[in-house]
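Researcher: Please translate sequence to structure tokens.
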Amino acid sequence: MQIKLATKDDLEGILALQDQVYRVKEPHADAKKILVDLIDAAHCDIVVAKQNNKIIGSATLLYFPIPAYGKPYAFLEGLVVDKNSRKKGVGTALLNKLIELAREKGCYKVVGTSRFASEDVHKFYEKLGFTKWGWEFRMDLA
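Model: Translation complete:
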């Protein structure tokens, strides 16, 4: 298995996994353009896990500079492993790579969210050193 930063060549593989994390029937019409913009953006890193030249996982970190700390924090979004490749260390490898990238960018923390009912996801994050902290307050706009 190879863990690497995503390139434009990885777009189709990343999009193919999206329904497994976002529960959409098909990607938004602008999904490819948005992914290209994110791949090129300094405030974002997307990593993919590849096996036999197929993308079996991906995850995104978005960086937000916080003036009070003089450093950014990293927000984890869309960590997904193909349902046929779960429980094989793919998610751990992706998350470890993202943590490494966050450290390289000087981030003071990495934040991820999870649904209350996703107890297996909570255990996964805790196993890797994350702690439950606070609440997420959210307003869906669309």
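Researcher: Any highlights?
Model: The radius of gyration is 15 Å.
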